[in-house]
Design a protein that fits this description.
about 50 residues; alpha+beta; two-stranded parallel sheet; single chain; 2 strands
């Protein structure tokens, strides 16, 4: 998707970090950006959007 100019941003409620560690490990290998809601509140999503 990056070659076509698309990026994937996954926003999780945070429980996925703890309960789905195996799935999160797989996601980190394939998804461009993974954020939880705290990161979004801290402005990281806006920063990423400006950079891409």
């Amino acid at each position: 998707m990056k070659r076509a100019g698309f990026y994937f941003i996954w926003i999780t409620d945070g429980y996925g970090w703890k309960k789905g560690q195996n799935q999160m490990d797989k996601a980190f290998a394939k998804i461009d950006y993974i954020l939880n809601t705290k990161f979004v509140r801290l402005g990281l999503l806006e920063k990423i959007i400006k950079e891409i």
